[in-house]
UniProtKB/TrEMBL annotation:
SUPFAM superfamilies: Ribosome recycling factor, RRF. GO terms for molecular function: ribosomal large subunit binding. Residues 23-184 form the Ribosome recycling factor domain. Responsible for the release of ribosomes from messenger RNA at the termination of protein biosynthesis. May increase the efficiency of translation by recycling ribosomes from one round of translation to another. It comes from the Bacteria. The lineage of its organism: Bacteria, Pseudomonadati, Pseudomonadota, Betaproteobacteria, Burkholderiales. It is found in: Cytoplasm. Belongs to the RRF family. GO terms for cellular component: cytosol. The keyword Protein biosynthesis applies. One of its GO terms (biological process) is cytoplasmic translational termination. InterPro entries: Ribosome_recyc_fac (IPR002661), Ribosome_recyc_fac_dom (IPR023584), RRF_sf (IPR036191). Keywords: Cytoplasm, Protein biosynthesis. The gene is frr. It comes from Massilia cellulosiltytica. This is Ribosome-recycling factor.
Length: 186
């Protein structure tokens, strides 16, 4: 393993941490409806838990209503029950062959809770990035110990890893600031 491999690996892992955060922030509810909030609702599909998008077509009916059309008609009640029992606080209703999921407007208190949740997700992402930095630095120290690189090379590589970490933290802060603004907008 070389210095370039260590840096590339660290860069890739930090990028994955940021992508994970982006996905987690997409799940956080804002005042508007979007189908992504139902992506992680699990439905009992013939005895096995299955993600909702695998058993139904999700669409936006209007700005505050999501339409869920099951691929199999007999899944209507199961889907409605799964959405109601999820921790999203949604109250679906069946309308013919469609489950309508109205998303209630967020109260100021609920918006603040959502912002706290976003900040918590960001902190988890920062911890993941710092762990990647720590692992990369340990690998660099091992390379020095094995006499594969000099201490000067190690120091330069550690500086590069630190710059990557700083950039990743700035990216995380930007993502959270954007989501916070989106959540707090009425």
């Amino acid at each position: 393993m070389s210095v370039a491999d260590v840096k590339k690996s660290a860069q890739d892992k930090m990028a994955k941490s940021i992508e994970t955060l982006r996905g987690n922030l997409a799940k956080v509810r804002t005042g508007r409806a979007h189908t992504g909030i139902l992506d992680h609702v699990m439905v009992d599909y013939y005895g096995s838990p299955t993600a909702l998008p695998m058993v139904a077509n999700l669409t936006l009916i209007d700005a505050r209503t999501i339409g869920v059309q099951p691929y199999e008609k007999k899944m209507l009640n199961v889907i409605e029950k799964a959405i109601r029992e999820s921790d999203l606080g949604l109250n679906p209703s069946t309308f013919g062959e469609l489950v309508r999921v109205p998303t209630p407007a967020l109260t100021e208190e609920r918006r603040k809770e959502m912002v706290k949740l976003c900040k918590s997700e960001a902190e988890d992402a920062k911890i993941a990035v710092r762990n990647v930095r720590r692992d990369a630095n340990e690998q660099l120290k091992k390379l020095v110990k094995d006499k594969a690189i000099s201490e000067d090379d190690e120091r330069r590589a550690q500086d590069d890893v630190q710059k990557m970490t700083d950039k990743a933290v700035v990216d995380i802060d930007k993502l959270v600031a954007e989501k916070e603004k989106e959540v707090m907008t009425v």
